[in-house]
Specification:
By secondary structure, this protein is mainly alpha-helical. The chain contains 4 helices and 3 strands, in the order ααααβββ.
Length: 128
């Protein structure tokens, strides 16, 4: 994900260094997706980068690290919730996949049934 507040540090680099920065960020993001990775570890593998590029990388890699951790935690919670739903005998998916109650209009305020009546402006609806 790109954030606008990082734009000035990227725009200050020349085109060649922006290209190096982009490749380095991709390498870091792919490594961080597989296993927790220290951004400095990836940076050490590229000693030829200028200091401006290194600084921009540190800012952007920290953002990638933070967002990746949040995403992995969210993914873990979703998987746990899906496992709980399956354990309860429900199929995974949205809880509102159940059939909705039918609503039919009746004339007058009595319908001859014990189902609740719901008022809606000038009409009364029976909830089946």
């Amino acid at each position: 994900m790109l954030y606008f507040d990082n734009f000035p540090c990227v725009a200050a680099l020349d085109a060649e260094q922006r290209g190096e920065l982009l490749l380095l960020l991709y390498r870091y993001a792919m490594a961080a997706d597989k296993a927790p990775t220290d951004p400095e570890e990836v940076l050490r593998q590229h000693p030829g980068l200028r200091e401006e590029t290194r600084m921009a990388y540190r800012f952007l890699a920290e953002t990638i690290r933070r967002d990746t951790e949040k995403w992995k935690e969210k993914q873990r919670r979703y998987q746990e919730a899906a496992a709980r739903r399956q354990g309860m005998g429900r199929s995974p998916g949205r809880p509102w996949n159940r059939p909705r109650p039918r609503i039919t209009a009746t004339s007058g305020s009595t319908c001859g049934t014990s189902l609740p009546l719901v008022g809606c402006q000038n009409r009364t609806h029976r909830v089946d």
